[in-house]
Amino acid sequence: MKVLIAYASRYGATQTIAEKLAGFFPAEAELVNLNEQTPATIEGFTHIFLGGPVYAGRLSSKVGRFAERFKDELQKIPCAIFLASLAQGARAQEYLEQSFPAWLLAHSSSREPVGGAITLSRMGFLTRFLLKKAAGISADKDVINYQAIERLAKTFLP
Predict the structure, then answer these.
(1) Cys-Cys link to 24, which of 73, 133, 149, 153 (CB 3.0-4.6 A)?
(2) pLDDT tens digits for range 130-157
């Protein structure tokens, strides 16, 4: 088994989620932050996790571009998708279903909203200001759902 965990993370919360997911596959997982690089190929991977955060109600564009670039290959490999968001419950599920292409949702073995986190000290002034004005967030917040991450991992665990 060779697992690719492709994700986009700007402030670290989605990276934390991806690293936790990789912990279930210690020898088999390769982590790729799509904000830093895009793999030239996904050939050789037997399983793929793809996920990213919601910013202002939209999935990170790097995740969408990855999915479209490798659409044909992804449809031949077992995939699972995850969405990092502060939204919970039905709203988180709605974000997930609106964020990923229909073909990927249909193909994915598992789809999980996995919570998220905000660490204001990692953000610039303008982002902190907008979070406070638009979302009323003025303090760090962590709602990462470790049980959802484990459920996601179990999709491909033997």
Answers:
(1) 153
(2) 767 666 777 777 779 999 999 999 999 8
